[in-house]
Structures are given as structure tokens and as C-alpha cells.
Amino acid sequence: MKEKIVILGAGESGLGTAILAKKQGLNVFVSEQGAINATTKKTFDELDVVWEEGMHSFSKMLDANWIMKSPGIPSHAPIVSQLKLIKIPVISEIEFAARYTSATLIGVTGSNGKTTTSLLTHHILVEAGFDVGLAGNIGNSFAREVAENDHEYYVLEISSFQLDDIHEFTPHIGVITNVTPDHLDRYDQDFNNYLNSKLRITKNQNQRDFLIFNSDDPILKPVVKESLTEAKLHGFGFEASGLNKTHYTSNKITIETEKEKTMINTLEFPLSGRHNLLNAMAASTIASLLQISKTTIRESLLNFKGAPHRLEPVLKIQNISYINDSKATNINSVFYALESMKSSTVWIVGGVDKGNDYEVLLPLVREKVKGIVCLGIDNHKLLEVFGPVIDIIVETQSMSEAVKIAHKIAQKDDQVLLSPACASFDLFKNYEDRGNQFKEAVRNL
Where are the domains of the chain? Predict the structure, then answer.
């Protein structure tokens, strides 16, 4: 009798898992609480996958060998709690996919910087001639990539939600870019729960593996040092120390290990800001550990284009620069964005607040921001915190209106920055939709 996998959720992770599971000859049942889009239904039908939408039929799951829980579904969801009670193993999609590939895995997690670090690492490996895929929280799901390509290497951007249900998954090189309070609504408002989730990336690593971590992060550094990981530790940062470290001085990234020292000139690195130098340090360290030459690393850094929706230059209109940072969904991301602004800034901010403490941004706002355009259903916290320090603060209900007002506030040589600090679900499908609407509104000015 075929082994059975039940897939909770029919989004990117669920679809990819179904494709890989069918390829492996498993019996597949997909259950989606909401609606499944027509294209996905068509794929399921072509694969002969049994599916349901608008409900979770517990009775159809009792004979499952595994449950793959999509990352968007909380661990305390009623259906998940029921399944755990009857002792059916609940796994994540990256756990499932890793069982069917012998590829070398590079896993990148963190509150901020993981997308840029993943893209940059993938770019360097491609430039070096590696057979490498990019998956996880970016692009295709890992399961779909394994089903359709199965590269020799994978760079995986991994969220805390994806790490929550791993059991044996382990990357050869794990990276933690930083840890700041985020998604606390999923972690019982307990930062330690969220922090421990990120540390799960090193849970199964052994002495042959590497854990690269931001040693400038005051929270992350001590907990990594105190962790029981067996991996070789390699810190990166402007203050990095120890036997294995990567640091930055005089426009050079210096990577030091027990065996060698490599220096990479970054004088013409196209991405601005301290945070992007940290991302470059992490990616360069990965490449160096994989024996990629410093010449290839440097050339790759210089021709890298950056991540969409992450400090993405859009247009310059009447000498006003418009910058799309829609992926900045937490305070730390916005801090980096404002820190990298070179001139007076009109800041578009707002959305679904995740428990943000905006007061940490006050020094940067006083220094850099001339006007704030609030974009969200509920802006009371923004008005309360920034109203006393910013003369121009306007509430809007659409991206088109927000961009038009920002354009009126801005003057020659100013910058208009969309960096929301919030989730997008009140007015948009997701952060990509929000960023695309921003770009469209700018082009329509």
C-alpha cells in the first residue's frame, strides 16, 4: 500500500510538495481552508491529486503517514492540534523536499537581509559555474525545485515558519543574518520563541558543517556561542572577532579561517548601506568556504543588481528619486532603509502593524524625514509617535493617492521612500503587489 501524505495548504509550498510527492509515488491529499486558484486545481487534477477547499476534513487525514503543514498555517491551528494529538508527524515542506535530494544545501535565515544574501550567494555561485538552484521563501518552493530540476547545490531562503517543523533537515552551510522582534503574533508574543525558531537552522548540523552568523548582532552573538551546535562557527560583521571571521575595513571584505586569509575589494559595490555590506560579507564567506576565487567573488559583487522590492530604485522625476522598499515589513528593515538615505526623504509607511515599536526610529526620522505619508487602514500609532516631531504627516487609503501626495511634498534632490514597516494585507495581496502598485503609481505621475 502506498504511503500517504496530507498537505495542509495549497499555496506555493503545498503545490510543490504535491508535485514532488506524486513523483515519488505517494498517495496525496491536499486540504485548503480557503479557496484554491484555478491553475493549481488544474495541476492537481492532471497529477491525479485528491484535493478539497473551504474545509479541513479530519476524517480523511487519519491514515496519513505524514502531514506537511504549509508555513502560513500556525502551529496552534485547530486542525494541526488535532493531528498532533493522534501522533501523525507534522513536517515542513523543506523537511519533505530535503529527503529526496543529495544536493549541498545552503540555508539562509534571519529577520532582515536573508533575501538579498540568498540572491547574492546564488549569483556568485552561478558566476562561478556551479549547478545551483534558488528556492524556499523566494522563487519556487524547494519541493518543486527538487521535483523538476534537482541541482547539485541549493541556496534556500528560509523563514522561521519553515524551520518550525523540521526534524532532520540540515544545511551544510547555515546563515543567520540577524534577529530582531518580528512575527511575534505567531510566537505567543515571546521573542525567545522566535529566536529559538531561527536557531533551529543549526539543530542537525555536525562538525563538517558551518554556521555563519552576524557577530555584530548583540542578541544573536551570545546565543550562538552558547548554543549546542556542532557546526564550525564563523562570525561576520564590522566588529567580528575569533579564529574564523569575516570583517570589513578600508573598502575590503576580509575572510579569515584557520587555513587562509582572503581579501576582496568592494570599492565599487553597487548596493548602498551598512546592511548591504553585511549581506555581502555573509555571501562572500559562503563562496569562500566553497573554494570560489576572490576574483569571481569580487566581480559578482560588482555586477549584482539587488533584490526586487528591497531598496529598489524606480525612477527619478524632476530630480526626485523614488525608491521601492516594500519588502521592509518590520522596524529593523526600515531602520536600515532610512539610515541609507542620502538626502531629505518623504517616507511612505503603514499597513498591518505587527506590534512595532516606532520610537527606535525617532532619531533617524528627525534627521532624514521631511514628511510622512501614512498608507493603511489604521494609522493611529504612526500619528501618535511621529506627529509631534514631523510637521507634514498625511493619511491616505490607496497607493496612487500616497504617491501623488509624496510627489507634492518632495522637492528637487529629495527622495520618496516606500518602506512600510508593516504587513501589506489590509490594502494589498502581499508585499510584491504593494511594491508593484508603487512602481506603477510612480510611472503614472
Answer: 4-91, 95-302, 312-443
Task: List the CATH code of the domain at 95-302.
Answer: 3.40.1190.10
Q: Do domains 4-91 and 312-443 have the same CATH topology?
A: no
Find out whether 183 and 193 touch, Cβ atoms under 8 Å: no
Other Cβ atoms within 10 Å of 411 Cβ, number: 13
Q: Is the pLDDT of residue 208 over 90?
A: yes
* CA pseudo-torsion sign 239, 244, 249, 252: negative
User: Can you give 374-442 as a three-state secondary structure string?
Assistant: EECCCCHHHHHHHCCCCCEEEEECCHHHHHHHHHHHCCCCCEEEECCCCECCCCCCCHHHHHHHHHHHH
Contact 196, 166 (CB under 8 A): no
Torsion of CA 12, 15, 17, 23, to 10 degrees: -140
Q: Average of pLDDT values for 12-24?
A: 97
Give me 222's grid cell. 551570545
CA distance 284 to 271: 14
Do 415 and 337 contact (CB within 8 A), yes or no? no
Query: Under CATH, to which class is 4-91 assigned?
Result: alpha beta
Cα–Cα distance, 19 to 38 (Å, whole number):
16
Residue 43 burial (C-beta neighbours within 10 Å; 0-12, 13-18, 19+): middle
Q: pLDDT of 357-383, one tens digit each?
A: 899 999 999 999 999 999 988 899 999
Please identify, in words, the CATH class of the domain defined by 312-443: alpha beta
Q: Is the dihedral of CA 101, 104, 110, 114 positive or negative?
A: negative
- Crossing angle of helices 274-289 and 331-339, in 10° steps, is 110
Give the per-residue pLDDT at 307: 78
- Cell numbers given for 285: 564567506
- Given a cut of 60, whether residue 187 has pLDDT beyond it is no
